[in-house]
Write a structure and sequence with these properties.
Blueprint (H helix, E strand, L loop, with lengths): L8 H5 L6 H4 L20 H4 L12 H11 L6 E4 L1 H13 L6 E4 L6 H9 L2 E4 L11 H10 L3 E7 L11 H11 L4 E5 L21 E6 L12 E4 L2 H10 L7 H10 L5 H23 L6 E3 L5 E5 L3 H10 L5 E2 L9 E5 L3 H14 L1
Parallel strand pairs: 2-3, 2-4, 4-5, 5-6
Antiparallel strand pairs: 1-7, 6-7, 8-9, 9-11, 10-11
Helix pairs in contact: 5-6, 5-9, 7-8
The structure holds pyridoxal-5'-phosphate.
Amino acid sequence: MNVQDLARPEILAMAPYESARSTAAADGVLLNANEAPVMLVDEPRWRAMELNRYPPPQPEPLRQRLAQLYGVDEDQLLVTRGSDEGIDLLLRVFCRAGRDAIIECPPCFGMYRVAAQIQGADIIPVPRDDESLRIDFPALAEQIRDSQNARLVFLTSPNNPTGDVISPADLAAVLNACDDQALLVLDEAYIEFCGAESAAGLVQQYPQLVILRTLSKAWASAGLRCGAVIANPQVIDLLRRVMAPYPLSAPSIQAALAATDQAVRPRQEDMLTMLAAGKVDLLSQLEGYDWIRAIWPGEANFVLIRVDDGPGLVSFCAGQGVRLRDFSSQPLLDNCVRLTVGSPEDKAALAKVLDAWR
Ligand SMILES: *Cc1c(COP(=O)(O)O)cnc(C)c1O
């Protein structure tokens, strides 16, 4: 399979922008980027970041760190401004406006649809089962084979907001259906919260597989805006063609290295343990409320529930200072509300408002 055959011809044909840092080393006397020669802030913390200089487009130490973290080669990984940027880059490289399409299995993460709409790509939904909210895999494979113009298939494991995980057998079936006519984009934003293994290792074997990872959730770093696309090096090269010349700010690069340092790993373990225990508690608490019509526990750091009046519950809780996410307006999610597992203090505040609602 040659993934270049799937890319927009305009993207293949154009000469990418050549920045100062992408065409020359950042050493010696730097007079090639119209930068200021001095820094104006004078605190050691900021000085170390050389804020007067453009940052490296793909900082080597961070790329190395993430490749090691995810068990892939460096040339299979692109560091991005969160997964949101990865989704956007994929749409812009692989979907021609008004011609190509993405396939998604709603209810799912809303950014796939929005990125497709911005790019002018069609959206082909393969709806989930209306009770279990699970993916209809035979229907999905059929849709992939039938649609001539689908270039990207977006799947999420565990899924947001339903929390279900895709089995290796189901994944293999979708990869085979994609064959050499579409890329399967597997978003693993919540994979660290569940027992399942990442599919990143399969990228070697399947050039049609793209994995999205992020530091936003299990690395407790949503404020950083740092994620990664893991794919065949040819896909990575294509994405770099449309990416901004300096996507990552110097402070983000430093902070991402600090946030994934060996020294924080034990604290990450503690946090994951705390959240797993918090989720068990939350579920047993929710089971005690007779006004909850359905619970989808899922395998991530949130729970989806159905009640009689979803918007009412969400606005009641907001009035008490507790923010929940209302999904009522989404297909199949009538009166559904998503609750994130928080700290023990958050849980106490939540219990108080839910008791009051009853
Ligand atoms: C939260 C989330 C992300 C993370 O996006 P970032 O841009 O990396 O913060 C990605 N995918 C899904 C499904 C999510 O829920």
